[in-house]
Amino acid sequence: MAGPPFNKPRPPFSGPRPGGARPGGGRPPFRGRVRKEDPHRINSRIFGLTQVRVVGENVEQGIFPFEEALRMAQDIGLDLVEISASADPPVCRIVDYKKFLYDLKKKQKEIKAKQSVVELKEIRFGPNTDEHDLNFKLAHAKKFLAEGHKVKAFVFFRGRSIVFKERGEILLLKFAQDLEEHGVVESMPKLEGKRMMMFIIPKKKK
Question: Does pLDDT of 39 surpass 70?
Fold first, then answer.
């Protein structure tokens, strides 16, 4: 009597199958380089416009039919770049597009470099801060203000020292007076819980 058919084990997978198929079906993922879209419409990718306002260096500026504006750019070996689609009529610049993008990125980097992050710097005092410690903290405050940061100066009253709140107010006002060449008092000393605080912002440069 014949037994059940003998099933031979399949050999292990050793490489791609014909047509790019993979075990289990499906095609391998596409790993080609994806082209980034240009941030502007240029040349023949500008469509749906009958006329545009042409701007640029060493070109005739004004309002022209779109086809004529495109021909003007092509005649001098440059690109027609749409820079303001919402204007009436839309504004297009005749320019070398690669150079235009380079200058735009360079300008954005310069703007970003000039933008400083304003931080809130805290300077803490006790109601009995001595002259030496006050001068030390003044130096720090001058540095913070010169860097464009906002300073929060506060006196912390520990335990029963709250009875010396007038002393804390005098200390903060003296601190602000010593910084008047560097900063402006944004809010006068104010008691909140066990803290009397005051805010000083950098003085605007003339």
Answer: yes
